[in-house]
Specification:
Number of helices: 8
Structural class: alpha+beta
CATH superfamily of the largest domain: Glutaredoxin
Strand content: 5-15%
Strand order of the largest sheet: 2-1-3-4
Number of strands: 4
CATH topology of the largest domain: Glutaredoxin
CATH architecture of the largest domain: 3-Layer(aba) Sandwich
C-alpha cells in the first residue's frame, strides 16, 4: 500500500498542511511506473475526494494523460470525484435485499433525504449510496449508516432509522440552546451575509 492513511485527513487540517502532504505523496512516487492507482489512493486519503486539479496533478506525476486517470478513478468504486458527506448511508441491493424490498426502501430514504444515490444532502450530513452487497444477507433488507447495519427493514422502518440517526447527529452538534452548528444553515447564512456586505 502507499503508506498514506486510508481515511481522509481533512477536517481541522489546514489547506497548507494538506498541500504539503500531497507534495510529499507526489515526490514519493515521482518517476515510478504503475503509480497511478497508489497516487489516486493517497490523494483521496489526503483530501477525502479527488478534485479536478488534484486529478490533473496526479496524472502528471504518474506520467499519464488525465483521461486515463479519470478512467481509472471512475472505474473503481473506491474513488470519489465529489466531496463526501460526514455520514454514509448504504442501501443494499444484493439479491437477498433486492427480493426483500430494497428498491422501495431506497425510494423512501431518497424521498426523506431529498437526494438520489450518489448525492450528498445539502447540509453535507449524509451521502446516499446504492450498493451491490454489504454481506449481511441474513438481515435482508439492510441499510448501513457508516459501519452499522440495520436489518429486517421496511421502507417506514428504514426512514425511522435514518431520522433517528439524523436527530442524534443534530443534537450532538447543538450548542445547548437547540441551535445546530456545523450541520445547519449557519454557513449558508454567513455566506449570504458576506454577499450582501460586498
Amino acid at each position: 500500500m502507499c503508506g498514506w492513511p486510508s481515511e481522509p485527513t481533512g477536517g481541522d487540517v489546514s489547506e497548507q498542511a494538506l498541500e504539503e502532504q500531497f507534495l510529499e505523496l507526489l515526490e514519493h512516487y515521482k518517476g515510478e511506473r504503475g503509480a497511478l492507482v497508489p497516487l489516486l489512493q493517497g490523494a483521496q486519503a489526503i483530501f477525502g475526494w479527488l478534485p479536478e486539479d488534484v486529478m490533473a496533478r496526479v496524472a502528471e506525476a504518474a506520467d499519464e494523460p488525465l483521461s486515463k486517470a479519470l478512467g481509472v478513478a471512475t472505474f473503481y468504486s473506491q474513488f470519489r470525484l465529489k466531496p463526501h458527506a460526514k455520514n454514509t448511508i448504504r442501501c443494499c441491493h444484493g439479491t437477498a435485499c433486492h427480493v426483500s424490498g430494497a428498491p422501495l426502501i431506497t425510494q423512501e430514504v431518497e424521498r426523506y433525504l431529498g437526494v438520489r444515490p450518489g448525492e450528498n444532502t445539502p447540509d453535507m450530513l449524509f451521502t446516499l449510496e446504492e450498493v451491490h452487497c454489504v454481506g449481511a444477507c441474513g438481515m435482508a433488507p439492510v441499510v448501513m449508516i457508516n459501519d452499522r447495519a440495520h436489518g429486517k427493514l421496511t421502507p417506514d422502518k428504514a426512514v425511522a432509522v435514518v431520522k433517528e440517526f439524523r436527530e442524534a447527529e443534530l443534537a450532538a452538534n447543538s450548542n445547548g440552546d437547540g441551535h445546530e452548528c456545523e450541520v445547519c444553515a449557519c454557513a449558508e447564512a454567513a455566506a449570504k451575509a458576506e454577499e450582501g456586505a460586498a
